[in-house]
Amino acid sequence: MSIAIVSPGKDPKPWLEALRQVDSSLDIQVYPQIEDLKKVEMALVWQHPPGFLRNFPHLKLISSLGAGVDHILSDSEIPHHLPIVRIVDEKLTWSMTNYVLMGVLNFHRQLYRYQKDKDNGIWDMSNPEISIKVGIMGVGALGGDVVDKLMYLGFEVCGYGLNDKKSLSFPYFAKHQLDDFLSDINVLVCMLPLTSETEGILNITLFQKCNPGTYLINVARGKHLIEEDLIPAFEEGYLSGAMLDVFRVEPLPRTHAYWSDSRIQLTPHIASVTNPKAAAPQIVENYKRLTNGLPLQHQINRVKEY
Ligand code: OXD
After folding, report:
1. How far is the CA of 237 from the centre of ligand 1 (A)?
2. Is the CB of 67 inside a 6 Å radius of any atom of ligand 1?
3. How many domains does the chain have?
4. Does 58 share its domain with 81?
């Protein structure tokens, strides 16, 4: 029985080392040098070639090498009965929360305005803070932590999600309450999983319903945003700026309009990068659970797609 790492989208070496450190007896094969396809029972994947996992006749479990699983579910050849697990890790959550806090605080304390003022030699002490209310779309493991930390810092926060949720410590709007959610906030943070329902959710129709000048932060997936709607949303005043970590095509093509738009801050999908050392123990734990027929950790719901 062996584990296969199939990660053309991530360097497999640190994963191999981290897994071996947790359990040196593991038999691990690394794509593209997988010699014994029949032995593979668990596949660790990141942007695997679609259809490739069909080569493992005895595959029993697929684990994402990150928090997202959209890269797995987009492969229509993955049999429906196969369980899929994802990484839920404190370090990943911590980094993601810090990134979102950076975006929220930079907007609230107007870092970009003061950077421009500095370049122009302007000393302007008027209106030093923008008053904000932050709306988090997606309040799972990652979004929930952002809500907690923002509340701890004293900000007004509310959440939005596709399901009804009860007994939360913060105001929460369910799917059908999107308009109320948007009218309540002026910082919109997208942390939703990418599913067939959420793809393209950040579009001009949604932006029109935002309070004028809302600031957008997208740390989820590029496909949540209809990219060509963003600059028109600035022009119309629906949004005042955006901080984006994810894009439809990555790396973002050099010719893309976002590179030169001063209302957009962008980073190269680094908001929260999975740390192999931190994630390896839970991968090995799931492998052991699989071997012993125990319930898996962080298994996703194939119907909900997250
Ligand atoms: C992830 C990511 O899903 O890095 O972990 O985007």
Report:
1. 31
2. yes
3. 2
4. yes
Q: Which of 111, 145, 92 is nearest to 265 (CA)?
A: 111
CA atoms within 13 A on the CB side of 303: 0
d(CA 190, CA 110): 20
Provide the domain limits for residue 179. Answer: 90-266
List pLDDT tens digits, range 273-291: 999 999 999 999 999 999 9
Q: Which amino acid does the sequence have at 284?
A: V
Q: Tokens 């929360």 correspond to what residue?
A: 97
- Taking the whole predicted model, whether its pTM rises above 0.85 is answered as yes
Query: Is the torsion defined by CA of 113, 117, 119, 120 positive or negative?
Result: positive
Nearest to 140 by CA among 190, 79, 72, 199: 190
Q: Long-range contacts made by residues 86-89, C-beta under 8 angstroms, separation at least 24?
A: 86/298, 86/300, 87/63, 87/274, 87/279, 87/282, 87/283, 87/298, 88/141, 88/282, 88/297, 88/298, 89/274, 89/275, 89/278, 89/279, 89/282
CB 277 within 8 A of CB 18: yes
Q: Based on the domain organization, do 165 and 130 belong to the same domain? A: yes
Ligand 1 contact, 189 CB (< 6 A): no
Residues 159 and 238 in one domain: yes
Question: Does the CB atom of residue 274 touch ligand 1 within 6 A?
Answer: yes
Mean pLDDT of the chain: 97
Q: How far is the CA of 87 from the centre of ligand 1 (A)?
A: 9
